[in-house]
Amino acid sequence: CTGAEVAGQPLDLYVAIMVGVAARERRFSIRKGWAAEARRHSCHSCRNQQCSWAYDFFVGAGGLSEEARASLEQEAAEQNDMVLLDVHDSYDALTFKCLAAAQHAWSCVSARYFVRLNSNNRLHPQLLLAFLRSISRQNLQQLYPSGFAWG
Questions:
Q1: H-run or E-run covering 73
Q2: CA-CA distances (angstroms) from residue 92 to 80, 87, 89?
């Protein structure tokens, strides 16, 4: 397991971001933008309750040149927020990337909620967590009996 492994306390929210190999600037923009509060830190904007969330970028790194692969691995080691997948980075591989993200969340991350995004989406994790916390457990099971909410 790499990326948002959690030792001890489970996360409230884990965000899997699908992103392309060439989207280096987009990854850095996300890190400095809406995801700046994440990475195993706690935020205090969830209705005065401490909440935690983390994210990882999922990148298809199969079939890359040695130089491109080394550059991606260096970024992954420096940032500690990337999961490199052994699949070609293409739209055709998106289903595999999504399944790999779900498998990673299931086996490596302990989180109450899981969100999958594309890199061109923006998330307000504090607002999402506040909304999810506002729904009682009984209502949550009635509104989303399968455990999935698509939007």
A1: helix 66-79
A2: 26, 10, 8
- List all residues 6 or more positions away from 87 whose beta carbon is below 8 Å from its beta carbon: 60, 61, 62, 93, 96, 97, 100
Element (H, E) at 113: strand 111-118
**What residues does 115 pair with on adjacent strands?**
15
Closest to 96 measured CA to CA, from 106, 107, 87: 87
Token code pair at residue 130: 């506040």
- Going residue by residue through the chain, which has 151 residues, state the pLDDT in tens, using 9 for 90 and above: 654 544 556 788 999 999 999 999 999 999 999 998 885 443 434 444 456 889 999 999 999 999 999 999 999 999 999 999 999 999 999 999 999 999 999 898 888 889 999 999 999 998 988 888 888 777 777 777 776 666 5
Q: Could you tell me the two tokens for 138?
A: 């009984």
Taking phi over 0 as left and psi of -120 to 50 as alpha, with beta for the rest, 123 belongs to beta
